[in-house]
Specification:
single chain; 248 residues; alpha+beta
Length: 248
């Protein structure tokens, strides 16, 4: 059993390493202004990994990036918020802005149905959906320039898995094996991994461990903010978590 667990953690580690070496790291390392809107480095496929060329043809990364965006948009089929089993990953009454939305061709979500919320350091992160905690990392020091990050993964009863990333050092409030309910506090937001500032990255995958191209389009039943033409959350918009609908 321990060998199986180590193998699973190894697979997750490969994904997390890819997540931590994404597009925004290039902006940070080249001296991008900290006053600009930060975007996280969470990208499953690093479109900037190709070597630059000296030819006059368009860089291969542009074509690669747009291909990833197209693949992402093909999966971006959002349903009605009232039917969603997910709530915003922060407590009712709290509100934060989206600094990077899904399928972002100008950030690090080219091929991710993910959201980045601008959350101050130490903000409470809650379970967007109940389930079992299957993986936790909280040993990474608070450093926005590290290649590693802290996270919590929660597996839901349908086999999907919620991924909460860039948590604070020792900021996990749950352990592997814990059963959590929707709205339960699970962590503290941070800026571990290559980010442009404090942020919470949230995404859902069809299976655990997470696999590229197998993410799930998510909307939130208690969101009060605007939606785009596809029904997803808008980049730059502010979203406040409404009280949970208990069905009473």
């Amino acid at each position: 059993m321990e060998c199986v667990r180590q193998r699973i953690r190894g697979l997750v580690g490969l994904v997390v390493l890819a997540l931590a070496t994404g597009a925004c790291s290039a902006a940070i390392e080249t001296g991008a202004s900290s006053a600009s809107t930060p975007s996280t480095s969470t990208t499953v496929v690093d479109a900037l990994s190709s070597s630059s060329t000296t030819t006059t043809e368009p860089p291969a990364t542009t074509t690669t990036s747009m291909a990833l965006v197209d693949r992402c948009l093909a999966r971006a089929d959002f349903g009605e918020t009232a039917d969603s089993p997910y709530a915003l990953p922060f407590p009712p009454g709290d509100g934060y802005s989206i600094i990077q939305s899904y399928c972002n061709d100008d950030g690090s979500h080219e091929n991710q149905l993910a959201y980045d919320f601008a959350m101050p350091l130490g903000s409470i992160v809650v379970a967007a959906r109940g389930g079992a905690v299957v993986d936790v990392e909280e040993d990474v020091a608070d450093d926005a320039h590290t290649r590693h990050l802290n996270y919590v993964v929660i597996e839901h009863d349908d086999g999907t898995a919620g991924f909460y990333a860039h948590l604070q050092h020792e900021g996990a409030l749950v352990e592997v094996g814990d059963e959590v309910t929707q709205g339960q506090e699970i962590g503290l937001s941070g800026e571990t991994g290559r980010t442009g500032g404090p942020v919470l990255h949230f995404s859902v995958y069809r299976t655990f461990p997470p696999i590229d191209d197998r993410d799930v389009p998510v909307v939130f039943s208690n969101s009060d903010g605007p939606f785009d033409a596809r029904g997803g959350l808008r980049e730059g918009a502010f979203y406040r978590a409404l009280p949970y609908d208990t069905g009473d």
